[in-house]
Specification:
two-stranded antiparallel ribbon; 17 helices; Rossmann fold; 51% helix; alpha/beta; 7-stranded mixed beta sheet; Tyrosyl-Transfer RNA Synthetase; 2 domains; single chain; globular; binds tryptophanyl-5'AMP
């Protein structure tokens, strides 16, 4: 891989992602200002993640809105591969999904793929992945989804419901398609080869079109699902993609649950957050204070600023003044980090409380096989 290249697949993200190039590579569409305005109009409210291009790409979002305006509802679907605790990056599509549920008043399905992570990670047992499925479900519930309109699907638990749908899908995907899409080799275990059929299954769980808010790394699965949908007489899933939040340690990689130092988990204590940000957050500042005051910092590469932009500072005016102060040298790197630490810890204090409450709510959310 050359220095300016990058890799984005569901199991591997590497390099500094050029999102314009990625849109071309994946064959998705950028969210234009016209579409962004249209979503705002139909939803009746703006969302900062749309306004700032955190959600930057889509497949057939216009069809979903056309149908909705004719009175035909869609449903929402997203998921998590439970390989560890939830991190801030995972929350991006879920926070946006929660907003969509609220604004469009639609059903939501959340898939926990305990099987996928068992297949994909040599060191994880099924007990491990099912333990993390429970932990991740708490984070999802903590975001405030409506229990009467939201169901959590756990693959090993709900296989009875998923399997007949997955079988329809699997029959239409051949090995050369999955191999080309995911780069599988002869050494890839056959659980992985079949898996895409299971991630596709919830797309067809209701007899309505589905809209999937998700990180762009997961798009390849649904490219296959969209190809086969007409062959099984179903509507193609529509997608709306978010960018990948970078690792704390810099723009060269996404935040990943397996990289402790580069990751802020929802379960982190305030002193851990403080330590991680101060020690690891990649800075766009100058090497010393004098130079920083003179030359200013670069917020566009500064990870702390990016976290504020992507997630933690929804107020545009506040964000703008942080941007300008940092760029002019008025705000020092340590001060910028302090702003972020406070924002994250305020968010996590509330989230962790709701996460505790979710323990007594989880039963209401679990999908029951019919
Ligand atoms: P997983 O567990 O890798 O990720 C869960 C969701 O979080 C997104 N994501 C990120 N978004 C921004 N920045 C990051 N650094 C970051 N890391 C992960 C992912 O794109 C995903 O939306 N196979 C899936 C689970 C799944 C799923 C789905 C995901 C099952 N059905 C339907 C999306 C839609 C997985 O392992 O996701």
């Amino acid at each position: 891989m050359s220095a300016d290249d990058f890799i984005v697949t569901p199991w591997h993200v590497e390099g500094d992602i050029d999102y314009d190039k990625l849109v071309k590579r994946f064959g998705t569409e950028k969210i234009s200002s016209v579409l962004s305005e249209r979503i705002k109009k139909v939803a009746g409210e703006d969302h900062f993640m749309l306004r700032r291009g955190i959600f930057f790409s889509h497949r057939e979002m216009n069809r979903i809105l056309d149908d909705y305006e004719k009175g035909n509802k869609f449903f929402l679907y997203t998921g998590r591969g439970p390989s560890g605790h939830t991190h801030i990056g995972h929350l991006i599509p879920w926070v946006f999904a929660k907003w969509l549920q609220e604004k469009f008043d639609v059903n939501m399905y959340f898939q926990l793929t305990d099987d996928e992570k068992f297949y994909a990670k040599p060191n994880l047992t099924l007990e491990d992945t099912s333990k993390f499925a429970y932990e991740n479900a708490l984070d999802f519930i903590a975001l405030g989804f409506k229990p009467e309109k939201t169901k959590i699907i756990i693959n090993t638990r709900n296989i009875q419901t998923l399997y007949p749908i997955a079988a329809q899908v699997a029959k239409k995907i051949n090995f050369s398609n999955t191999k080309a899409t995911f780069g599988f080799t002869n050494e890839t275990n056959i659980g992985m080869i079949f898996y895409t059929a299971l991630q596709s299954a919830p797309c067809f769980i209701e007899d309505k079109p589905v809209l999937i808010p998700l990180g762009v790394d997961q798009d390849p699965h649904f490219r296959l699902t969209r190809d086969i949908a007409p062959k099984i007489g179903k509507p193609k899933p529509a997608l709306i993609h978010n960018i990948m939040i970078p690792s704390l340690e810099g723009p060269g990689g996404k935040m990943s649950a397996s990289d402790e130092n580069g990751t802020v988990y929802t379960t982190d204590a305030p002193n851990i957050v403080k330590k991680k940000i101060n020690k690891y957050a990649f800075s766009g500042g100058q090497p010393d204070i004098e130079e920083h005051r003179k030359l200013g910092g670069n917020p566009d590469i500064d990870v702390s600023f990016q976290y504020l932009r992507i997630f933690f500072e929804p107020d545009d005016n506040k964000l703008k003044s942080i941007y300008e102060d940092y760029k002019s040298g008025k705000l020092l790197s340590g001060e910028l980090k302090a702003i972020l630490i406070e924002k994250i810890n305020d968010f996590l204090a509330v989230h962790q409380e709701k996460r505790e409450k979710a323990k007594s709510q989880i039963d209401q959310f679990l999908f029951e096989n019919k």
